[in-house]
From TrEMBL:
Organism whose genome encodes this protein: Streptomyces luteolus
Molecular function GO terms recorded: 2-hydroxy-3-oxopropionate reductase activity
Family recorded in the similarity comment: Belongs to the HIBADH-related family.
Domain of life of the native organism: Bacteria
Presence of keyword NAD: yes
Enzyme class: oxidoreductase
Keyword Metal-binding: no
Keyword annotations of the record: NAD, Oxidoreductase
Protein's recorded name: 2-hydroxy-3-oxopropionate reductase
Pfam families documented for this protein: NAD_binding_11, NAD_binding_2
EC number(s) on file: 1.1.1.60
Length: 297
């Protein structure tokens, strides 16, 4: 029998599926629940166990990992008679890896404590590729002792794992991450359109730019998306729209001005309004093309 903690995994989407599979490969006993049967089938094919409900998934778990789209979904799976808090055992640790508002994380930790359940917020950055390759950056909020308990699990999922402060701090840092990523993608998209309209060899230009100060992880990861106009979602515009709402609201609450971030948030919103919400966030290129008078298929 393994001495590793038993894990319940709630949410098996673009990120959650490969992340849970990496835990299975590392020898963890993973029981998962999600709403899509094909995702449950994928989990069992990888060696995990599919549960029929949240309650069934979490009842014997030492650690419950959640990876769902936004605050409403976290609240839906955490609370109520069928939720995590009513069905997980006392002493269990919830690792919430969703990207949600800092206040939602603070409230969850407070409510869980009343049930004898521990919580850390641990959102991630790195996209689908980072999840598959287990090289995610994981920003954590919570107590040191709970972070220490979670660290071996997080080490299986990511490469850079940092405790950033008390409950909600991980979400605050993730909001800042999404601000930087969105502005970076927007700058790259503008450069691509500028270069193409100037008649420059785009691939050559992006290669040399990425070797200098303008280089970034964003450009490395998204260069082929720009070159091939391949916007298969690794991280959807819909989700980045949600995240930009989180960061602009949180910044307003603490009195921080985000002049460039505010503009990019509106550009993300406009792209979503034009029907591109299901595309990868590198599709910000499509918005720049439209603004530049180009026909977009």
């Amino acid at each position: 029998m393994s001495n590793l903690p038993k894990i319940a995994w709630i949410g098996l989407g673009i990120m959650g599926s490969p992340m849970s599979e990496n835990l299975i490969k590392a020898g963890y006993d993973v029981t998962g629940f999600t709403l899509e049967q094909d995702k449950l089938d994928r989990l069992t094919a990888a060696g995990g166990t599919a549960a029929k409900s949240i309650a069934e998934a979490v009842k014997d778990a030492d650690v419950v990992v959640t990876m769902v789209p936004a605050s409403p979904q976290v609240e839906a799976i955490a609370y109520g008679p069928d939720g995590i808090l009513e069905n997980a055992k006392s002493g269990a640790l919830i690792i919430d890896m969703s990207s949600i508002t800092p206040q939602t994380s603070v409230d969850l930790a407070k409510n869980a404590k009343e049930k004898g359940i521990r919580v850390i917020d641990a959102p991630v950055s790195g996209g689908e590729a980072g999840a598959i390759e287990a090289v995610l950056s994981i920003m954590v909020g919570g107590e040191q002792a709970d972070f220490d308990t979670a660290k071996p699990i997080l080490d299986t999922l990511g490469k850079t794992i940092v405790l950033c402060g008390p409950h909600g701090s991980g979400q605050t840092v993730k909001a800042a991450n999404q601000l930087i990523v969105a502005v970076n993608i927007q700058a790259c998209a503008e450069a691509v359109v500028f270069l193409e309209k100037s008649g420059v060899d785009l691939k050559a230009a992006l290669d040399v730019l990425n070797g200098g100060l303008a280089g970034s992880t964003v450009l490395t990861r998204k260069k082929d998306n720009f070159l091939n106009r391949d916007f298969k979602p690794g991280f959807r515009i819909d989700l980045h729209h949600k995240d930009m709402g989180i960061v602009t609201d949180a910044a307003r609450n603490v009195g921080a001005s985000l002049p460039v971030g505010g503009v990019v948030a509106q550009l993300v919103a406009s792209l979503r309004a034009q029907g591109d919400g299901g595309l990868d966030h590198s599709a910000l290129l499509r918005a720049v093309e439209r603004l530049s008078g180009q026909q977009v298929a």
